[in-house]
């Protein structure tokens, strides 16, 4: 075994795209990887000081889309280009923008699944950012990504994860087991 100094190598890290509106109604998006489940109907996102942060201060509603192999290049673009400097960066992605049905935020229809969210609280807010805790208000899934049981089929989505070690994106693969079931064979 080899030792490494502490690094944020928690894996896998979902690649998410946060959608908000600028003050003038222009759709904005940013790529984030430091996020996770907070509770049954809440998520948490570590968010620095971005145009998205300013947008959320004005309107605490946003969307979270899960990046895929097909959306990886544009998702990376909205992560490396600041909305403070490039006003119409979403237009450059070529994404189809729709209004969310339950929050005041854009839905990028090119992604298979999007959560509509509302900020519940901000933790450790400072000039450099904060931790957002948000309630999931609605989940929108493109019907072509539904399984036979009518629920989202994650294998079909080609979701990606951020590789913090080699700074890359990896496609999440196939199902390898059954949660809350396979372990029972060891009982």
Structural notes for this entry:
With 187 residues, the protein is mainly beta. It has one domain: Electron Transport, Fmn-binding Protein, Chain A (Pnp Oxidase, Chain A, Roll). It is 14% helix and 39% strand. The chain has four helices and twelve strands. The strands form three sheets. It has a seven-stranded antiparallel sheet with strand order 3-2-6-9-10-5-4. Strand 9 and strand 10 form a beta hairpin. The longest helix is centred in the middle third of the chain and has 9 residues. It is globular and about 60 Å long. The chain starts with 12 loop residues before the first strand and ends in a 16-residue tail after the last strand. Pfam families: Flavin_Reduct. InterPro entries: Flavin_Rdtase-like_dom, Flavoredoxin, Split_barrel_FMN-bd. It comes from Sodaliphilus pleomorphus. Its cofactor is FMN. GO terms for molecular function: FMN binding; oxidoreductase activity, acting on the CH-NH group of donors, NAD or NADP as acceptor.
Features:
globular; 3-stranded antiparallel sheet; 4 helices; Pnp Oxidase, Chain A; 7-stranded antiparallel sheet; mainly beta; 187 residues
Summarize the helix and strand pattern as letters: EEEEEHEHHEEEEHEE
Total strands: 12
Percent strand equals 35-45%
Look at the structure and give the CATH class.
Mainly Beta
Shape: globular
Residue runs with pLDDT of under 50 for 5 or more positions: none
The total domain count is 1
Distance from N terminus to C terminus (CA atoms, Å) equals 30 Å
User: Average pLDDT value?
Assistant: 94
Largest sheet: 7 strands, antiparallel
The CATH architecture comes to Roll
Task: Specify the CATH homologous superfamily.
Answer: Electron Transport, Fmn-binding Protein, Chain A
Family: Belongs to the flavoredoxin family.
Keywords: Flavoprotein
Cofactor: FMN
Domain Flavin reductase like: 11-147
